[in-house]
Amino acid sequence: MKKILIVDDELGLRSLLNSLFSEEYEVYLAEDGEQAIDTVKNNKLDLALLDMRLKNMDGAEILENIRKYDKDIKVFILTAFTDPKKVNILNELKIEGILQKPFDIFELKQKVDSALM
Q1: What is the 3-state secondary structure (H, E, C) of 20-61?
Q2: What gap in Å lies between CA 74 and CA 83, rounded to an integer?
Q3: Per residue in 11-63, pLDDT tens?
């Protein structure tokens, strides 16, 4: 079973995405950057859904740290804000794509399923 990590500080969104993906994938949840990095450090994951704005560090900083432990994990960024400088940094860190919040959960599901085929 493929493994995905959902990183978001909003409990409601984490719960919704967990429900959406848990039937087909083994789902790990993290509410902040430290939890996300620890999860990647201790597990071989296939994909991460990463919120761009978290309390203790931003998505680009988290992704830089994640890449130290797993260069192959596929990553989608979930964000309500797009900063062109951050987008360039994220693209250099090899992301699958950026989904603007609010996003269509069915589109997200399709993108995740396609990335994990």
Answers
A1: HHCCCCEEEEECCHHHHHHHHHHCCCCEEEEECECCCCEHHH
A2: 21
A3: 999 999 999 999 999 999 999 999 999 999 999 999 999 998 888 888 889 99
The b-or-e profile of 60-71 (16+ CB within 10 A means b, else e) is bebbebbeebbe
| Residue 79 pLDDT | 85
Angle CA 64–4–51, to nearest 5: 50
Enclosing H/E stretch for 2: none
CA dist 24 and 14 (Å) reads: 16
Amino acid at 39: T
Asked if residue 102 has a cis previous peptide bond (ω within 30° of 0), the answer is yes
Top pLDDT among 95 and 41 is at: 41
Which residue's structure tokens are 């797993």?
Answer: 70
